[in-house]
Amino acid sequence: MQWIAVSLALLAALCLALGTQTQSAAVTAHTQEALKPSNLGSLVRNPKWVAGLVLLGLGTALNVSALTLATVTVVQPIGVIALVITTLLHAKHKHLDINARTWGAISLCTAGGAVFVVAAVAGTDPTYLSDPQAEIILVAILIGLVLFFGVAELFLRHRRISMFYVLAAGILYGFVAVLVRLTMTHTIAHGIGQIHWLTVIMIVVASVVGGWMVQCAYSCGPPDLVIAGLTVVDPIVGVVLGLSVLGEAGPDFTPGIGMVMCLAGTVAIVGVVLLSRHHPEVIERREQAKRLRRELSSETPSADSATLKTLNSTREH
């Protein structure tokens, strides 16, 4: 059953990559400034953005199906495959040449994710049913996180810090994956009449808030960096919650497997960091920032505020 779940998760990653690239192209074509809720109306009327939403919805459905057959620890790390696909699609869309360091970073992300999955399959118990108290704890933490990230977004919106949006979305989606897994296993075991509706509500709320964070991240960074962050942060959160709060570690889980998972996760994170430094579009943004600084230094001290704002925004990417 776990390997069927892995196959479904791979298909979900493909849909995630295609949907992400499609929506990112629509968002960046729509605005070059901070994305606001008032922009949603025009995005919804954009066929490309809607197509991306459909693909993301299909990917989500496949991922939920995978979570009914295997643990969060197994399913979530597979999303790193979407990074490779998104990088290739974005490079083609932007006519970018992928340099050797970028390929190396992608290889680290993919290899780390693959080893993580194999170790997770060997060390987790897909039949384990968690204590109901764990679900209450997770929902309470998630409510606090949604409020925190919602308020923080209001204050940070105009600074356009891509990493904030990626981290917020990854953390929220990690909680969503765990709660989806709990809800599905609980429904299978006890029937739909015993669903905890507060959990379902928070799954929807966190998904919406996380989706908004992703849209904002599209507006201030390349989509493959967004995917890189999500496919590392999301599974790390899911695995930590799965092993610590839900107790998904099976009888075959040993300290050795734990060390392998930690090492593989570290390799994937290093890959994301390297990608954020050596991605062709990131390098291009740095060069633009340098040119702007040179232009500003050669002009009068009273450079216009729009140019200064553009420089600050570019540097924060």
UniProtKB/TrEMBL annotation:
Record keywords: Membrane, Signal, Transmembrane, Transmembrane helix
Region (Disordered): 294-317
UniProt entry tagged with the keyword Signal: yes
Keyword Membrane: yes
Domain of life: Bacteria
Transmembrane regions: 66-91, 103-124, 136-156, 163-183, 195-214, 226-247, 253-276
Bias (Polar residues): 298-317
Signal peptide: 1-25
Listed NCBIfam families: DMT_1
Name this polypeptide is given: Multidrug DMT transporter permease
